[in-house]
Write a structure and sequence with these properties.
single chain; mainly alpha; rod-shaped; DUF1127 domain-containing protein
Length: 78
């Protein structure tokens, strides 16, 4: 190995990798927070619908078995 290869080449440090991962942290935290808030709202909706009678659910044109697919219909393919 030559002197230039050992001492003049730019150093490859793990700091760039750490900095890149840290720069994605706010985005990941924001996505996690949105997911948590959406899940909480959906679970409250499931609880609200489960508390209804079968007659009230029929007014919404859903059955008791369809509550969870109804609440998560835009998120998952049911």
């Amino acid at each position: 190995m030559s002197y230039a290869e050992l001492f003049d080449a730019p150093a490859k440090t793990p700091i760039k990798g750490v900095a890149a991962r840290l720069s994605r942290l706010p985005s990941a935290l924001g996505e996690g927070l949105v997911e948590m808030l959406e899940t909480g709202a959906r679970l409250r909706e499931v609880t609200r619908l489960r508390a209804m009678s079968d007659a009230e659910l029929a007014l919404h044109q859903i059955t008791r078995d369809e509550i969870v697919p109804h609440v998560f219909r835009d998120r998952y393919c049911y």
